Amino acid sequence: MDSAKLFGLLVFALFLIVMLWLNHPSLGLNQLTSLMGGGVSVEPHILVYSNKSIGKTINLTIINSYDFNITIYDARGNYFRLAKPVVVMPGSSSAVINVINGAEAYQCMIGPGCNITLIMGFLGVNMTETMVLKLSG
Asked: How far apart are CA 17 and CA 28, in angstroms?
């Protein structure tokens, strides 16, 4: 291969690398640490029964304002488990959380609140975010 062809291939490869780098969102440290505070919000929908218990599931509406998918691999707490992993596309999706013990979860949520830990992944980065589920009243 002569030097002109080799130079042409190197320039083309460099051009492809630069184009791929410019077309993919890059995340800075501030975006990584403020994922839940910035572009992702979680709204729990909890069914409360009159016998001071909650339903067998909690539906989480997850709003993703970023332009890439986020995968929720697991959600855990003392009384909760994620039914199955969920891919949250830009926009919003719903995740079903199974409730292990409705009466104890209710008591926890009317008191100090119950921690639930979400294990998420996006763009090859995994992170854990803990939130508190609490009922008012």
From this structure: 20
For residue 59, the domain's CATH number is 2.60.40.1230
Element (H, E) at 38: helix 35-38
91-123, pLDDT tens digit by residue?
878 888 888 888 888 888 888 888 888 888 888
Tally of domains within the chain: 1
Dihedral class, residue 113 (left if φ above 0, else alpha if ψ from -120 to 50, else beta)? left
pTM of the model: 0.62
Question: What are the E-state strand segments in the chain?
Answer: 40-45, 48-49, 53-54, 57-64, 70-76, 80-82, 86-88, 91-99, 114-122, 125-133
